[in-house]
Amino acid sequence: MPSVSPRALFALNLRRLRLATGLSQEALAERAGLHRTYVSSIERGERNVSLDNIFRLAEALAADPRDLLAPERKAGSK
User: Which residue has the higher pLDDT, 46 or 73?
Assistant: First the structure.
């Protein structure tokens, strides 16, 4: 089990993937059909994101939904 809350883990992964793709919160929100303030509140860990929106965000990031939920891996671990 991760040492951070599920919301915080999701928030960290969403921000990491968004930045890795070079998207602003506004661009990600537009691609996912969501509002920018909603994406911002997700990244702050303030929202309990629905399964539908997890999939929308993953698709907008060209990522697997599991990437948004996976605990951070330490160097050298599988």
Answer: 46
pTM of the predicted structure, to 2 decimals: 0.88
Q: How far, rounded to the nearest angstrom, does the alpha carbon of residue 52 sit from its chain's CA centroid?
A: 13
Cβ-Cβ contacts under 8 Å for 59 (sequence gap 6 or more): 32
Angstrom CA distances, 3 to 9, 19, 20, 24, 46, stand at 9, 23, 23, 28, 18
- CA distances (Å), origin 61, targets 17, 31, 58, 67, 77: 7, 8, 5, 10, 24
Indicate the DSSP class of residue 3.
S
49: Cβ–Cβ under 8 A, 6 or more apart, which residues? Answer: 7, 10, 42, 57
